[in-house]
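Notes taken during the Thursday session

The instructor put the following on the board and asked us to keep it in front of us for the whole hour. The protein is DUF418 domain-containing protein. We were told not to look anything up and to reason only from what is written here. First, the residues (373 in total):
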Amino acid sequence: MNLMERTDRIVYLDVLRGFALCGILFVNMPSFLGERLTSEMGQADRMLRLLFDLLIQTKFYTLFSVLFGAGFILFIDRLRVKGKSLWVFVRRLSILFVFGLIHLLFWKGDILQTYALSGFFLLLFVKTRPTTKLFIGIALQLYTFFLYGSIYMYARSVGDQSIVEPDGTIQELVASRQFIDYISYHATVQLPQALSNTLTIFPEILSLFLIGAYLMERFTIRPPATRTLVLVFGISLVLSFPALYQIIRIHQGPVPDGLANYFFVWLSGRTLAVTYAAGVALLLRSGRSLSGFQVLGRMALTNYLMQTMVFTVLIFLTGMYGTIPLWQGTLSVIVLLAIQVVFSHWYLNQHRQGPIEAVWRAGTYGLKKSQNV
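Then, after some discussion, the predicted structure tokens were revealed:
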């Protein structure tokens, strides 16, 4: 199967987006339910936390960011074909930013506003050559590497410390079922902090956007051969082993969730994301449909936002925040993803796209024009 095989969509991108969405939910779940220090977890949860750091943490926002950059190229190409202005893309990002701000009223970890703000800078690269995008993307990745590397060296020199910060305020608000105060707290405290954090991670996100844009331009012309994918899969997996070993070693020490651990978690995210992307491509090439991932990917925005809503309802129904074991949260993720696959299959049999995607499209093009674009 050609990676760029199309009906009205690119199958590989939908499947990879759906796969990444699954990983994102596993990553976000501990934050939804309330962060806890690893040292205070039971044995089962400590093992799960290690597996999360090895296989999930930082791997999937990397994939999502690269996919966003690839989608940018597709969107701009469609605007050119239809003779439309780049202001359409500006409107699209502006609506995404509003979605992100609303999302931040419920959960501090939203990435949509970061994508929107970083996405505006992609307009500077509309007319640049693919190699220019790649060069700047790699340069920004190197900058991020040295930034995290310096933080790691600082932790080594002065003593590591946990980066997990349990939020007692939210725990009290959830326990007392004060939903309005919960929203107010996010609006006045968490939202400004999230916007501030965007400035910190902006270079890394933009770098991944640019790499994704380069890959889309490069492989639209000539998709990679299966032999190349196998080679990329193997090399990226092998390159992941040193960082994964360090994560295991650190988890056996006194500070398993500190700055040193995060550096290697981030580093392994660079290589394992490549492994996952190549692995999904090889599965599709072998004839696997991966339709569950595909429907999740076609409704990625709807499913992403609904995940937050479901877990927000869960914590207020139970009144528990920061006390639910990680293994129970993991089971909840598996159940929710299964439900979302079934729902997405059903909904897409009735509609062209997900409900939030339809609102986004209508806002981007206008209610009438969106039916024909």
